């Protein structure tokens, strides 16, 4: 059931020199004599995202401390050295496992010996990881699991990404438009039903399917109070899925899609936020037989790899897709690119049933949660490299 790009053999890559190594992803399995022990510190979201072009992205309650604790605990259990703000954090609680992503928090993690930072947070161009002069002295060697902050600032804008992909000409996307007023939404002869959503959203926050003008007016009015403009998007009637794309790493030089995860049990046409409904209750990986009967699955996986390459992503991304119609031969359209996918997973006491869409996909290729985290850690880049990346 695995697409051919996932039938790759992961192996340790020999380093040509220390200088070259500093600009490449580094294998967590590297046993080269003299190699520095990897000490990982996980960051959570403590900083309120800034208003960008008049639009703000809602901060997640808790700042991803739950998934951050999952990552730190499971990596530690798997044998990776973890740096934590608390001396012996309680595995049953999320506190004490992660450092805040403030400049002070990041510097504390580094001062405690962290060689790798796992940026389990929302990044942007003014984030300390990008701008801190105090961190500059470590930039050439300090490694980060995460996206380039300057790129994320652009790619968190759904309309910006859609326009970028449309200009490429090789991707299928739903029709959409931006509206700045309720009048724009009501008097442009838009075809109903239609999906209304913020252009800088988080999960399913604010996303609504509007069947009539009255609902559309109410939803747009609510979203405009949060931020303007609002995106109105063609409603896709077919099967929904999501594709995680792994970035290049020291063991795999290409962008590689994990198998598609299909979504079901929608609430009024929209997949509910996984903080409300566990993904194991409304998501699954298609069987090998289903994949053989639906060539569109592998086709969209390959398209998602091209998206990740075009955006130059340095950490996993998750791309939400949906078929234009209920016909199994229908093309999938890309309707949302998530540069910071949820990374919850089982391991800590009381978290046995926790899973993310990415973890479900990874399980289909034989990766349990610890293996998935190790593969992601294997893609860490130097802070210097991430800081240098911006829109070309």
Automatic annotation (TrEMBL):
SUPFAM superfamilies noted in UniProt: Glutathione synthetase ATP-binding domain-like
Q: Does the keyword ATP-binding apply?
A: yes
Which top-rank group of organisms is this from?
Eukaryota
Please indicate if the UniProt record lists Membrane as a keyword. no
The ATP-grasp domain is annotated at: 163-378
Q: Name one Pfam family in it.
A: Dala_Dala_lig_C
What are the alphabetically sorted keywords of the record?
ATP-binding, Ligase, Nucleotide-binding
Question: Which PROSITE patterns does the protein's record reference?
Answer: ATP_GRASP
Family according to the record: Belongs to the D-alanine--D-alanine ligase family.
Instruction: State what protein this is by name.
Output: ATP-grasp domain-containing protein
Source species: Lithohypha guttulata
């Amino acid at each position: 059931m695995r697409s051919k790009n996932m039938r790759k053999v992961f192996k340790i890559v020999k380093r040509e020199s220390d200088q070259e190594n500093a600009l490449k992803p580094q294998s967590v399995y590297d046993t080269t004599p003299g190699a520095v022990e990897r000490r990982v510190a996980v960051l959570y979201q403590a900083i309120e995202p800034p208003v960008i072009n008049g639009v703000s992205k809602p901060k997640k309650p808790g700042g991803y401390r739950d998934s951050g604790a999952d990552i730190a605990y499971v990596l530690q259990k798997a044998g990776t050295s973890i740096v934590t703000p608390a001396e012996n954090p309680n595995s049953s609680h999320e506190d004490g496992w992660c450092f805040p992503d403030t400049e002070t928090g990041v510097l504390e993690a580094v001062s405690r010996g962290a060689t790798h930072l796992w940026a389990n947070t929302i990044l942007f161009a003014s984030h300390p990881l990008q701008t801190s002069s105090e961190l500059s002295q470590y930039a050439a060697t300090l490694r980060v699991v995460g996206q380039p902050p300057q790129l994320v600032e652009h790619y968190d804008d759904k309309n910006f990404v859609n326009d970028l992909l449309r200009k490429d000409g090789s991707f299928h996307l739903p029709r959409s438009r931006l509206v700045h007023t309720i009048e724009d939404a009501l008097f442009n002869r838009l075809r109903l039903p239609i999906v209304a959503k913020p252009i800088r959203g988080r999960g399913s926050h604010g996303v609504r399917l509007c069947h009539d003008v009255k609902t559309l007016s109410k939803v747009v009015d609510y979203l405009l109070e949060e931020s303007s403009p609002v995106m109105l998007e063609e409603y896709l009637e077919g099967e929904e899925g999501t594709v995680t794309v792994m970035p290049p790493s020291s063991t795999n030089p290409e962008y590689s899609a994990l198998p598609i995860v299909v979504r079901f049990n929608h609430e009024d046409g929209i997949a509910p936020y996984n903080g409300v409904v566990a993904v194991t209750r409304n998501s699954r990986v298609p069987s090998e037989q289903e994949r053989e009967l639906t060539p569109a699955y592998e086709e969209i996986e390959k398209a998602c790899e091209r998206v990740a390459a075009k955006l130059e992503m340095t950490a996993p991304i998750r791309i939400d897709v949906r078929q234009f119609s209920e016909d199994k031969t229908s093309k999938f359209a890309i309707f949302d690119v998530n540069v910071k996918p949820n990374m919850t997973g089982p391991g800590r006491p009381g978290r046995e049933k926790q899973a993310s869409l990415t973890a479900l996909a990874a399980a289909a290729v034989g990766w349990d949660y610890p293996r998935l985290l190790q593969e992601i850690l294997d893609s860490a880049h130097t802070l210097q490299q991430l800081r240098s990346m911006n829109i070309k």
